[in-house]
Amino acid sequence: MVKIFIDPGHGGTDPGAAANEIQEKNITLQISSIIRDILLSEYEDVSVLMSRTGDETVSLDSRTNAANNWGADYYVSVHINSGGGSGFESYVYPGVARQTVTYQEIIHQKIMEHTLLSNRGMKQADFHVLRESNMDAILTENGFIDNAADAAQLKDSSFIDHLARGHVLGIAAAFHLTAKIGNSQILQPEPTIATGLFSVQIGAFSEQSNAEKLAFQAKEKGFHTFIKQENAQYKVQIGAFKEREYAEELIQKAKNAGLAAFITID
Ligand SMILES: [Zn+2]
């Protein structure tokens, strides 16, 4: 049995960061509750304890004491960032064992694969929950509540689902959790076309310089770009996914940024 302690940051009289009509404590509870539900419903031999399951005030000491007393194998603290910036970052305690960093790498990577947040990197910090927990621990900062674009995503339930799913897939990979029979299609959804990748293309040109110009504009707007040469054309793409829904999300993001985007199947 793998014991995962999930800690929704803040709560009760401590709202955490607040901006754009949302409060950190509510978003962290949403993400954490979905992480718990997916872990328990889709995986064998895992148990979950949460530091809070409602809008309760829980001190930092109570949180780490609960995890330590329970004998958790892993501590996952979920937060939303603020203070100017955008994107996702994760933390472990400075100088921790290689194993803790390996877990961080796996989980960080899965979350990056399952959201379109920009990657602010894997970091280390002397946070209470990382320092006082006796087991391997990670703290995730899931977007910036005071950034309009991040906040808009945090208000979107499908984005919250993706954040939670990224955490789950990371925890499952790190701890070699076994999926319950019958749920494998949820874990690895098949693309509509078995071998295809859904690429998001924003333009195609016969002149390379025109493709480069568009790629530069997209980059300025924060997209990752690459130019693919095919059939005497230079195609500007901003992403490729195994799952169509992620391609469609990126298209929406591109459209919001004023780019004409569509899916091509490679
Ligand atoms: Zn926080």
Automatic annotation (TrEMBL):
Keywords linked to the UniProt accession: Hydrolase
First-level EC class: hydrolase
GO MF terms held by the record: N-acetylmuramoyl-L-alanine amidase activity; peptidoglycan binding
Identification of the protein by name: N-acetylmuramoyl-L-alanine amidase
Listed SUPFAM superfamilies: Sporulation related repeat, Zn-dependent exopeptidases
EC number assigned by the record: 3.5.1.28
Pfam families listed in its UniProt record: Amidase_3 (PF01520), SPOR (PF05036)
UniProt keyword Endoplasmic reticulum present: no
BP GO annotations: peptidoglycan catabolic process
GO cellular component: outer membrane-bounded periplasmic space
Organism: Bacillus benzoevorans
InterPro entries on file: MurNAc-LAA_cat, N-acetylmuramoyl_amidase_3, SPOR-like_dom, SPOR-like_sf
Keyword Hydrolase: yes
SPOR domain: residues covered: 192-266
